[in-house]
Design goal:
Keywords: Oxidoreductase. By secondary structure, this protein is an alpha/beta fold. The chain has helices spanning 2-9, 30-36, 56-66, 77-83, 98-107, 122-135, 149-159, 192-196, 198-208, 302-316, 324-343; strands at residues 21-26, 46-52, 70-72, 88-91, 111-114, 139-141, 166-176, 214-220, 232-239, 243-250, 252-263, 266-270, 283-288, 291-296, 347-348. The protein has two domains: 2-144 and 304-322, 3-Layer(aba) Sandwich (Rossmann fold), CATH 3.40.50.720; 149-298 and 331-348, 2-Layer Sandwich (Dihydrodipicolinate Reductase, domain 2), CATH 3.30.360.10.
């Protein structure tokens, strides 16, 4: 398998024509079924050849639906790695499982598209990055908004100086999570900060083009909710140049998602800002000199777009953005938020330099997909 994956990765641009990267989907929960698996077919450079799941009914129905020939249980993960039936894996497991499954795949020479957050500690992130460097396999963290047109348009406008020097950022992202969902258990790293926080955090970092230097946070735990962590958390980030970013994430409030970046001479407001799926078309309101312009964008298949990009990187031998470095950049802030909640004290962050960032030229505009019937899976809110 390692040799086959390496051969695919080393193909040049011309070699990418007609090539398809073979994927194994590892974890067949809501996000994989509702967004990733139905998106594969129209990427033009990807196909599914294996499925790893612990659910017999998921294995039966999904393998038939998508024509997946090879099915394995979690206990057979090593057998899957040895079977040479995929070039890459899409890992959509609970956060605390990312480290072990990603490293095993990378050590086997498989490329890895890993859902965010990358892992549950900086140490785990570094270990995953080290495994990728050692094997030469490609590693990309699944920041789908790095390829979403509205998100990239906002970043391009800020970089072009349309709102002047960006001064502060604010955002909210909330959803209701059912007690039966795996997110309702397993402590902080299953909670709203690691699960939803990467969206406003990554937006602030990308729009400012900088890394935070200090973090503070306040959280609440309501007795009426079933969580063993703060169900709602408000975070403040200090950036170089006396800039601030604030965001609130919650598992216990009605669905909401928006952000605003305010500069010295204008602002950009995005709503919706972080969501995906049928009926979700991201849009911007850009205000300059007291005049507001609405900029609407069509619905796009965000998961198909990121997959199409990653497969192109694998086929053409390019290093993907967002890489493991991007995943680490967010996880180190998430870990600092956890410390701030535990201590009640602001947390200083060591300087961090990101070598790459979102590239507006990589915007993907694949048409929206329909969500197929789910098998033993549900959205976090149980819908």
């Amino acid at each position: 398998m390692a040799g086959e994956a390496r051969q695919v990765a080393q193909g040049g641009v011309n070699a990418s024509k007609g090539r398809n990267v073979r994927y194994a989907v590892v974890g067949a929960g809501w996000i994989a079924q509702a967004a990733f698996m139905p998106a594969v077919a129209h990427t033009g450079n990807s196909r599914m050849t294996a499925l790893v799941t612990g659910d017999v009914e998921k294995a039966r129905v999904l393998s038939q639906r998508y024509g997946i020939e090879h099915v394995f249980g979690y206990d057979d993960y090593q057998a899957f790695l040895d079977a040479k039936v995929a070039d890459a894996v899409y890992l959509a497991l609970p956060n605390w499982m990312h480290h072990d499954y990603a490293i095993a795949a990378l050590e086997a020479g498989l490329h890895v598209l890993l859902e965010k957050p990358m892992a549950v500690s900086e140490t785990e992130c570094e270990a995953i990055r080290a495994a990728a460097r050692k094997s030469g396999a490609k590693l990309m963290i699944a920041y789908r908004l790095h390829f979403e047109p509205a998100t990239l348009d906002a970043i391009a406008r800020v970089r072009a100086g349309e709102i002047g020097e960006p001064r502060y950022f604010s955002a909210a992202f909330s959803q209701k999570v059912e007690a039966a969902n795996h997110r309702a258990r397993h402590g902080f790293w299953a909670g709203p900060v690691p699960d939803m926080g990467p969206y406003p955090l990554n937006a602030a970092r990308s729009l400012f083009g900088a890394e935070p230097i200090e973090v503070s946070a306040v959280g609440v735990k309501r007795a009426t909710l079933p969580f063993d962590f703060h169900d709602t958390v408000a975070v403040t980030l200090r950036f170089p140049g006396d800039r601030l970013a604030q965001f609130t994430v919650s598992y216990g409030a009605d669905a909401a998602e928006h952000y605003r970046i305010v500069g010295a001479s204008g602002d950009i407001f995005a709503q919706p800002a972080f969501g995906f799926g049928p009926g979700v078309a991201l849009s911007l309101k850009v205000t300059r000199d007291g005049k507001t312009e609405s900029v609407d964008f069509p619905e796009t298949d965000q998961f198909g777009g990121e997959l199409q990009y990653f497969s192109a990187c694998v086929i053409d031998g390019r290093d993907p953005e967002p890489s493991g470095e991007e995943g680490l950049a967010d996880v180190r802030v998430l870990a600092a938020i956890e410390r701030a909640l535990q201590t009640g004290q602001a947390q200083k962050l060591e300087p961090f330099h990101r070598r790459t960032g979102p590239n507006p030229a990589e915007a993907r505009r694949l048409p929206q997909i329909d969500i197929p019937p789910l098998v033993d899976a549900a959205a976090p809110g149980g819908d």
